[in-house]
Amino acid sequence: MFGALIVIEDVSKRYPDGTVAVDRLSLEVPDRSITVLVGPSGCGKTTTLRMINRMIEPSSGRILLDGADIQQQPVNALRRSMGYVIQNAGLFQHRTVIDNIATVPRLLGWHRQRARARAAELMERVGLDASMAKRYPYQLSGGQQQRVGVARALAADPPVLLMDEPFSAVDPVVRRGLQEELLRIQEELGKAILFVTHDIDEAIRLGDQVAVLRTGGRLAQFAPPDELLSSPADPFVADFLGADRGIRGLSFFTSAGLNLDPAPVVAVDATAKQMAKRVTPDVPYVLVTDVDGKPLGWAEPARWAEGGKTLTPYGQTFEFGRDSLRVALDCAVLSPTGWAVGVDRTGSVVGVASQESVATAIRAAHAERAVRARDAAAPGTGARGTGAPGTGARGTGARGAGPAGAARRGGAGGEAGGAPGSAAGAGAEAAQ
Ligand SMILES: Nc1ncnc2c1ncn2[C@@H]1O[C@H](COP(=O)(O)OP(=O)(O)OP(=O)(O)O)[C@@H](O)[C@H]1O
Questions:
Q1: Per mean pLDDT, which range of 120-124, 143-147, 417-421 is the poorest?
Q2: Distance of alpha carbon 326 from alpha carbon 190, whole angstroms
Q3: Which of 19, 52, 219 to mutate to test ligand 1, by most ligand atoms within 8 A of the CB atom?
Q4: Closest residue by CA, ligand 1 atom 31
Q5: What predicted TM-score, i.e. pTM, was given to this entire model?
Q6: Longest CA span, the chain
Q7: Which molecular function GO terms apply here (predicted)?
Q8: How do residues 276-295 score in pLDDT, each as one tens digit?
């Protein structure tokens, strides 16, 4: 974990009418990571965010930016060191996209040409086509406006990005795309991002660490998302996380721990006899691949031998070692045979995993995490420094394998779901 760029120290906010919006909040926002503030409506998320760029002043406590009290810093300079993205983007309606994005560089005195060049570069970075540069905000979709909002916030390359429900006003599919884009941008730019949302799924997908606030602006729990899911601090947090947190927590375990069985996998040019050798009384199916090892579908060797060369579609596959155990479990549950098909990066079959073997891998992953947590809690082992329980999982690429991996699958549903189906269909035809 990187050092804290923003430190919130015992901060409270009481509004003039007596409302306590934030109550003795202490939090650290590390550099190069996404910290999410999540909680029910009115729990003080926006107030907290706005105290960081001094749009709201705390009643007590202090906030440090890179070790210096923000109260001692000129407010304009402070705000320019922090990109700020809000719901509905808050774009200047009378300015074109390119001029919206160039706003802060222009305020900083950049020459118009340089500011526009920077804006064009950012349009590309956030996935906006260059042809949109001259459009006005009303000529963009909600999702495109949010992308402009993110590009505008990044224009002067601030070390900090404050994001207040930036994706709340768009539909779930567009929202998913924007989340993916943010993770990608963060991987490239490595900002300290403080992200406010009331959506726990968004918090878990995006956060390196998540602060759950309860009404009255009190911190209920501050932990990496996998730790939150596996060990909620109290019934309020557990309730806020929702009923299926166990399943969602599997997104943080890589499928690399699965014991894949290569035995029931045969090439399409195998003889019926060779096929028959691969089946067991428990598993009467084999997975037939093309000569390059790409899956075609499931076959029953007994029927195959009788000339009934039909293939059952194999459905979804998971990328072994990259996708999470949650994706592998989903593949096994949805598979007509109950076996999940594991493939490598090129889509060639590595092996298959039964529902039971996924369950075994889940048990092993939980046990391993318990050991890591115990080691981390034991003083003097040195494990604490590695942040073992939560960051360990992240460090092993669990984001790639986990929430992002799952998102990749969800987001590219047409691709992931469609291609295998059609390949299986084509295979079934070819094998007739
Ligand atoms: N200017 C104000 N004067 C008085 N009370 C305020 C003011 N602004 C916010 N509040 C109150 O402070 C509390 C926290 O508000 P805040 O907007 O920070 O919550 P939030 O968690 O961001 O909510 P939401 O998810 O609904 O946006 C709420 O009870 C709100 O009504």
A1: 417-421
A2: 27
A3: 19
A4: 42
A5: 0.78
A6: 84
A7: ABC-type quaternary ammonium compound transporting activity; ATP binding; ATP hydrolysis activity
A8: 888 877 677 899 999 999 99
